[in-house]
From TrEMBL, chain A:
<dbReference type="InterPro" id="IPR015855">
    <property type="entry name" value="ABC_transpr_MalK-like"/>
</dbReference>
<dbReference type="Pfam" id="PF08402">
    <property type="entry name" value="TOBE_2"/>
</dbReference>
<keyword id="KW-0067">ATP-binding</keyword>
<dbReference type="InterPro" id="IPR003593">
    <property type="entry name" value="AAA+_ATPase"/>
</dbReference>
<feature type="domain" description="ABC transporter">
    <location>
        <begin position="4"/>
        <end position="234"/>
    </location>
</feature>
<dbReference type="GO" id="GO:0055052">
    <property type="term" value="C:ATP-binding cassette (ABC) transporter complex, substrate-binding subunit-containing"/>
</dbReference>
<keyword id="KW-0813">Transport</keyword>
<dbReference type="InterPro" id="IPR013611">
    <property type="entry name" value="Transp-assoc_OB_typ2"/>
</dbReference>
<comment type="similarity">
    <text>Belongs to the ABC transporter superfamily.</text>
</comment>
Automatic annotation (TrEMBL), chain B:
<keyword id="KW-1003">Cell membrane</keyword>
<dbReference type="GO" id="GO:0005886">
    <property type="term" value="C:plasma membrane"/>
</dbReference>
<feature type="transmembrane region" description="Helical">
    <location>
        <begin position="94"/>
        <end position="118"/>
    </location>
</feature>
<protein>
    <recommendedName>
        <fullName>sn-glycerol-3-phosphate transport system permease protein UgpE</fullName>
    </recommendedName>
</protein>
<dbReference type="GO" id="GO:0055085">
    <property type="term" value="P:transmembrane transport"/>
</dbReference>
<dbReference type="InterPro" id="IPR000515">
    <property type="entry name" value="MetI-like"/>
</dbReference>
<feature type="domain" description="ABC transmembrane type-1">
    <location>
        <begin position="90"/>
        <end position="280"/>
    </location>
</feature>
<feature type="transmembrane region" description="Helical">
    <location>
        <begin position="201"/>
        <end position="226"/>
    </location>
</feature>
<comment type="function">
    <text>Part of the ABC transporter complex UgpBAEC involved in sn-glycerol-3-phosphate (G3P) import. Probably responsible for the translocation of the substrate across the membrane.</text>
</comment>
Amino acid sequence: MARVELVNLSKSFGEVKVLHDLNLTVEEGEFVALVGPSGCGKSTLLRIIAGLEDATSGEIVMDNEIVNDLNPRERNIAMVFQSYALYPHMTVEENIGFNLRISGVSKAEKRERARAAAETLGLTDLLDRKPSQLSGGQRQRVAMGRAIVRNPDAFLFDEPLSNLDAKLRAEMRDEIKHLHHKVKTTSIYVTHDQIEAMTLADRVVILKGGVIQQIGTPTELYRNPANSFVAGFIGSPAMNFVDATLETSGGQTTATLQDGTKLVVSVDYAALGRDVKLGLRPEHLELAANSATNAMPGSVRLVEPTGAVNHLKIKVAGQNLTVVDDTLADLALDAPVHLSIAPEYIHVFPKDE
Amino acid sequence: MTTLDTQPPERRMAAPRKRARTFPRLGKYATHVVMITGLLVTIFPFVWVALMATHSRSEIYSSPPPFWIGDNLAENYIKLLDVMPFWTVLFNSLWVATAGTVGAVFFCSMCAYGFFAFNFRGKNLIFGIMIASMMVPPVLGLIPFFLTVQFLGILDTHLAIWLPGIANAFGIFLIRQYMVQSISRELLDAAKVDGASEFRIFWSVVLPLIKPALATLGIVMFIGLWNNFLTPLIVLSSPDKYVLTLALRSVQSIANSPWGAIMLGTFLSMLPLLIAFLFFSRQMMAGLTAGAVKG
């Protein structure tokens, strides 16, 4: 296991700078997820950590040793790829044992370790099969077997579940988490799926345009997003944003929506200036009576039943807000309703962010 | 795409059935006639050579020429050994073709891997020049080729026939194209992470995956070297180093050319290729048509 540290790491492809002075420390045994939209540089960052790509500037430190000039093997990391990247001409056992074969491990030991890895992942019956004879989930498991067989200092995962269907993805997510609890190896996991990042990781790093937006535990990111990008990215369904103006009077801060509705905001955001964006999470908005605190009048535009809850689109102050309704209220289209939200759940961001 | 088809099944079938009825048999027969004619035209020289190998010179020149199996095979064989060291020459051909083929398969695939896996300054330019070199008629290069071989001091050796071609533009291009479509970058990365050196990646991961292309190049090279006449003609001067093409041609110039023996030698020289083709035709087709169709 290793502590992985990135110090002022930058990467450019020609004129295009894809990573900007990143600083990040992944503690020994920690599971960190890098998450962000396509093209934010998360895969490039992972490839730099793996040694498959050179950093333009900055340092990669593993266990207090700068590893910039070491090749992937010397860094003793293992990587699971999005396409699994199994060797098509080798059997499952040969795939898992390939890196042991290269490092000159004896045949008997290679076989033993490959079988042990296969057993951990439930692949024992498939050892003689070729990758083409395996299902997506099985291939994914072989790719993980190949990673764990050599006891690496760190695991790198590059969107390993994105080629699987939703059900299998959830299963494999559990398996990865289970595996991490078992082997406790430092893991860095790249994904564009915030649910995957939140459920798996001890800490999540949000990247946008090659810049780290926020680092924190899933709960921290959810409760205290550093900016509107993080707020919009974390949480499902995504956070609603509405324009408002802030006023402070008599020790109370209120936000006025475009239709004149006034909402009480718990914290004094006066420093943000008058024009702001309010962030309202769909699960914090609830259908309420006219007289409720922070009641906003609106009308029903759409009802999307998901079984346990309904997703509502309610038009408030000229904008459609998504609401998670766990009361499963029977609503007609265009029916007038009121939404309310507790002041402590209202996030306020600068408007130009 | 799924669309709703409201027509009853009978009506849906009607249109194609009507079209098919117009010229069904004619088309089929025409195809067969064309194919059989093509087959006969292609196979005739081979059969003719085989038949003539059993006849004496006078029978061959008789009019009409005999189109049956003769009884002069043994005499022709004795004559063949008399006019040339046939088995030595056959071995020379085998050696040249095998060495050149093995060398080409190895070096072309290594060069192709270089173009496929590495990024270096001027890569596209070099690759472009290499492709462009395929458009130069080979005959234009004969004199420079001769001068180069002379400079290297390998005139009148077999090396001069097979060595210059072991890294050739066609082979490199063929294999690189095959690599581009059959090997993913992530596979190379995975091997790197597994700790494989570049040569190990090439040897253990890439080579096994491009076998069809290697087989194709191998067969094309073997046929090319086996049938090569011009290069041996230019570089070889000692009769004991002759290859089949050159030896068979050289005895045609003497008075009263022993045509029966020459035909026997020609037929024997065709046998290895025929056998090779029987065994490898499937790989050859697979390699040459790979990438033509997606999937």
